[in-house]
Write the structure tokens for this entry.
Amino acid sequence: MSTALIAGGGSGGHLIPALNIAAALRDTERRVVLIGAERGLEAERLPKKDYPYHLLPSEPIYRKQWWKNWKWPALAMRLIRGVDRILAEEKPSLVIGTGGYAAGPVVWRAAQKGIPTAILEQDALPGLTTRWLAKRVRNVYLGQPEIEAHLAVGRHTKVFVTGCPIVPPDRSLKDRAHGLLGLDRSVPTVLITGGGQGSLALNKVVASWLQKRSVLDLQVIWATGHKSHSEFAHLHAPPRVHVVSFLDPIAPAYAAADIAVTRSGMMTISELCAWGVPALLVPLPTAAADHQTRNAEVMARAGAAIHVAQSDLTVERLDREVTELVGNRARRDQLATVARGRARPGATAEIVALLEALEAAG
């Protein structure tokens, strides 16, 4: 049985694609090994999954305060030794990076050793790791076509616009989702989530908004994230307001939602498009190279979502945008139609087929 290594993590936007690709690759009778970072989200999540895994040492990379990177020279040597040990132990026939601290050194060393390698770039603006590896790997898989204009690749690198590796929508959930979540089908539903780790800034605005509305003529599914859930749990007031720390699985919420208010990581955007949920996108302003803003701008220009900067998201603005969308069925339908047109629900299967061909080519 051949072994595939998948390196990626640090955030849900890197870890979830890795897990989705891992599940699909394992269905092809391959052994799948995941590699992440000790400081990443994967350190908590991977022990709960049924995959062998390795965690590499890591430290944050400071882009502006460069003097804080003083630990990296010594850490780099440890990383290289750790990666070489993993590659020698696992003997992979295939390596793919999905982003994050662990992806760079693993894919780089695998490429140096002649192992078939690929990377996934989902965001509208390629990250530092992607720009570095794109000249060294065999395959690059893109979450959306706009990325290609910003990417310089190697002479022998092939680029494929695959979409992001999401779990395809289960359309049968449309008839069951409200019951599963304790919701009323006759009342408009708003899904609010700040991503896998939550968003305190978004949560504070949502909390003030809910407290301001004396009559709630809609129902809200609000995923706060684990870190700040205790601060907002007192606002849980079913059947109209459902405050949870995390949505796993999130599919029923997408199936039930009439609109969504979310961050603009590309995995979230891909899921919104696949489900056809009209969305208000509020980018995380501190995301690396401000890539979430670029993602939201691309969607807004295409007419597939509404973009509101975090600095502009007041209680009044949130109330106005939600009220207008809930009350305007034609506008919701327009956004949903354009979003579905950008969807690639079969992306995971396409990526796995390309990886199989890459492995076969040796």
User: Anything to note?
Assistant: The radius of gyration is 21 Å.
